[in-house]
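Could someone model nicotinamide-adenine-dinucleotide with this protein?
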Amino acid sequence: MPLANSAPTTADAARRLLVDGRLVDAERTFATLNPATGDVLGHAPDATAEHAKTAVAAARRAFDTTGWTTGKEFRAHCLDQLHRALTEHLQELRELTIAEVGAPRLLTHGQQLDEPVELVRYYADLLRTHPLTEDLGEVEYLGRRHRRWVEKEAGGVLAAIVPYNYPTQLALAKLAPALAAGCTVVLKGAPDTPLITLALGELIARHTDIPAGVVNVLTSSGAEIGELLTTHPGIDMVSFTGSTATGRRVMAAASGTVKKVFLELGGKSALIVLDDADFAAASMYAAYMICLHAGQSCAITSRMLVPRRHHDEIVERVAAALDRVRYGDPAHPKTYMGPLISERQREKVDGMVRRAVAAGATLVMGGKRVDPGFFYTPTLLTGVDPASELAQEEVFGPVLAVIPYDDEDHAVRIANNSVYGLSGAVHGRDQERAIALARRIRTGTFSINGGNYFFSDTPFGGYKQSGIGREKGVDGLEEFMERKTFGAVVA
Ligand code: NAD
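Reply:
Sure, complex below.
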């Protein structure tokens, strides 16, 4: 159900890079579009290799020669300031997120904005309470007593590279724990959503005591700045979120200087509907999941596995639920689904749908472009071969494949037949049976009967080629820390 598009078409939103504590312009800029209209929204500085090298040198200096890494109380104070600045500028950030990311207003009240702002407060609090030493007690060794303990300390200079789909959530899920841990950071925004990332840099420069060089923010139109950061000897760690294809390149590039690599990559998660499930609830969940941020969410369930004998009934229910999804102007408070980020992304999504149909799948509904902007209608496919491109590759659009299974073992085999392992979901009235099935799926997160696993204190990350490491929670803090093991003779 489309909602009329009344989003603003332009904004005077030119912004600056943050390099070594100064907000700076670049000689060249690049345009960023409003995906709901296709019009130019603003211009962002196109950082050069020189900007990146200066940023790394500043972050290196701040890490190696200042008290930032050891000043725990000061860091907590700076995170409090950042939280306050984000809160005070929330409305401005909200409108920019809607205009640049195409995120529906509703979603900015959750994962796109309000939740990650709270994550900053969470890490300020955690820093004050989380123990940074672990006592391993004393032992006798060669006739002497030895006391052993572990101290956790800042991991080093971090390159944080983020994708376009949840730019603030992903930037803050790296920045907040990294700063809490005592790291210094060079953050690089995505080419399609530079303004919202630059806005973070401006808030840090203007409203916090975070010292020069501790946080640097770069944007660029191409991949070169990211490549430079992943090979630069001044960078100790890379925290990357993006596609699995780019993640492989990042990991290979970082191997030259043996950087610690943290990866949050793609997904092709399965929703398994058990034969005792509430089919109406499961179908509603499937429809609203696949349309979450127009399918541009890494952990959504894009394969729906249903008992073969209930296949047609469930397909009918899902089609009815998809038909009720309100899409259109992301600024409208009732819009559930906005546009795809770009024409390029829409081409990719449409190409995958066309190829699936050519390979024998049935297009039950959707598969249509809606202009102006980069909208793509909620799309449902059946008869999709579980080994085919559409069932194996991430679409990153509102495209759901319903696949029948014969018994639970068969459902588990189909769900696990993926290079990805980010998330999954199960619906079934017998909760214990549903949980037992979830334990058999090789993924980092799982939803039982619509349950939410995504909070500030819950670790998030993937198995297999969906990534390495965990973001958020205590695990998210410890990702950015080194452990130093001590042994001292005491008697
Ligand atoms: P992308 O991989 O194209 O780009 C991500 C970032 O990497 C961008 O900033 C880009 O400029 C940069 N980049 C590109 N080439 C690079 C290189 N060679 N070296 C270093 N950096 C480079 O991803 P995208 O299209 O912006 O985002 C969509 C992808 O992100 C999807 O695959 C999605 O699943 C994934 N994602 C994963 C998670 C997660 O938590 N697992 C969360 C959000 C998005």
